[in-house]
Amino acid sequence: MDNNQVLAAVSKAFPQAVASSDQPYGQLHLTLSLEGKDFLSFMRFLRDDQSLGYTLLSDISATDWTPHTPRFDLVYILYSVTNEHRLVLHVPVDEDQRVPTVSAIWHSANWGEREVYDLMGIPFDQHPDLRRILTWDSYQGHPLRKDFPLEGNYDVDDFDFSTMEVNSAFSQDPNQPCQIPNALE
Amino acid sequence: MSTQTKTMLLNMGPHHPATHGVLRLELELDGETIVRAEPHVGYLHRGFEKMAEYKTAQQIIPLTDRLDYSAASVNNLGFCGAVEKLLGIDVPKRAQYLRVIMAELSRIMAHQLWLGTHALDIGAMTPIFYTFADRELAMEITEEASGYRLTPSYLRIGGVSQDITPEFVRKVREFVHKMPQAIDGYHQLLTQNAIWMKRTKGIGVIGPDTALSYGLTGPSLRGSGIAYDVRKSVPYSSYHDFDFQIPIGEDGDTYDRYLVRMEELTQSVRIIDQAIENLPSGQIMADNPWTTNPDLDSVRQNVDDLIRRFKIASQGFSIPTGETYHAVEGAKGELGFYLVGNGEAHPYRLKIRSPGYYLVSALPYLIKGHMIADVITIIGSIDIVLGEVDR
Do the beta carbons of residue B185 and residue B178 sit within 8 Å? Predict the structure, then answer.
């Protein structure tokens, strides 16, 4: 399938989904105008439809276009192994707007969305494990936003040597530190 | 007296030699069996994407070497390809072939590094001496071309940094001649080895659908039986000129991933052989006054060229408004550069799709239910480099 056939198939199944489409450098970019459940069923359709079959979510990215509104451009990069076709989806996201997670559709979205949350600060609804991933848990700010400075210092207080407490993924509340188990116990 | 079992929490890494870098794993153990695993990454996060927003395109090329430092030239190729796409530069055929040679050499070097360390992790000490000795041959070729061994930064926007020497051609031919025998040697050490097969067969099994869903690419995906290779599906840099095959596995276990990488070594040698024998003559840099430095002779004689060279070196060149996702087949899988330009000299946004990041995200699935000793096997079998995972 080429770009125009994919565009036709998508527009036929979801006439309201695509706000605009573009084909820069031969690559199909779609800007979506869907929210909530419609967005999820559209994404599920892209994965499950026999003729499309975008079973690989290559990556999730986001661009900060401040001071424009909506501020962020959330980007999903999909690939169909059967069609050998790449599809790039753009979702405009406002500051503090929550986006439904697609991690139930593609496992790779779990870490992809965690990275976007960590570095760009876009929160995802219903995400199973929305913690920071590349920076540490007590990090402040979201480094890839345009208003985040390139250089600077601040104190790190992730590990308290007096209590031997550290943040763990297994503690009930990820924001609460858990005691390191004593090996000799 | 009543007995009760409780699970134990074991912290593995970040400073553990078998995690191939600074990867921390939290393991919940029932006896010696893994009940739950949680990888923690980010210990090598250098803010690469943020840094790239403040640097010109030429300044970013050496940074990309430090992503997957075991296969540096492939990273160069991905980034240069993305920038060239936005600028609309046609790379000369000779430069494309030289890029392919360097990319395949770095893929071989990465696979040799992986094979040696992977076997060492499992307990076979001998292979690493052979792979490292042969890796030295590829290193010398890289040094002959660029002057550097591990992080050559040989590529430039629009071509390569310098033309090759006759000595380079001689060394590559010698390498192509020697490698098939060397690969046979690796096979003799491991492929039918009873201990090796017991340690790797049926360990870390992942089915094709699950592998795709987790975003696995490269040899780890092909081990599960899906023939997705960017070099074939979306050819770049003249890969369609070469005759090579994509090996795939059946069971999706550690042994199949091992076999796939071993066959990739052979196929990469084939590509290098075809590229060096059919190397076209001509320019090594694109004919584009905005991005290509004028040569030194004309700089010495012509003041306009002097100014142009100075401007390209000091200010860089503007990356046009637009966005594109350019993927190449890295040593670990699909390596993508999502580049957004806004007309300034530095990228507005550069997102790197590193294959290793998604390989690590599949670790909890792969490890679950196995023994602690198999954790080491599985980490080795997905072949991660933390420099690219954390960026």
Answer: no
Q: Do you find a cis peptide bond into A149, omega within 30 degrees of 0?
A: no
Cα separations in angstroms, A185 against A158, A180, B1, B70, B291:
24, 11, 20, 42, 65
Which of A43, A73, A102, A134 to probe the B interface (max B CBs under 10 A)? A134
pLDDT digits (tens, 9 = 90+) for B317-373: 888 898 999 999 989 999 999 999 988 888 999 999 999 999 999 999 999 889 988
Judge whether A3 is closer than 8 Å to chain B, CB to CB: no
Q: How far is B41 from chain A (nearest CA, A)?
A: 6
- Answer whether B138's CB lies under 8 Å from B104's CB: no
Sign of the alpha-carbon torsion through B22, B28, B31, B35: negative
Kindly provide the b/e burial profile for residues B102-118, where b requires at least 16 CB atoms within 10 angstroms of the residue's own CB: bbbbbbbbbbbbbbbbb
Residue A167 CB-half CA count within 13 A:
16
Q: Does domain A3-144 have CATH number 3.30.460.80?
A: yes
Q: What is the pLDDT of residues B17-71, one digit of tens each?
A: 666 778 888 888 888 889 888 898 888 888 889 999 989 988 999 999 988 888 8
Q: State the angle between helix axes of B72-87 and B93-122 in degrees (0 to 180), rounded to the nearest 10.
A: 140
pTM: 0.87
Q: How many angstroms separate the CA atoms of B134 and B238, rounded?
A: 27
Place of tokens 């929210």: A35
Domain positions in chain A are 3-144, 149-185
What is the Cα–Cα distance from B266 to B278, expressed in whole angstroms? 19
Structure tokens at B309: 């060279």
By C-alpha distance, the chain B residue nearest A116 is B351
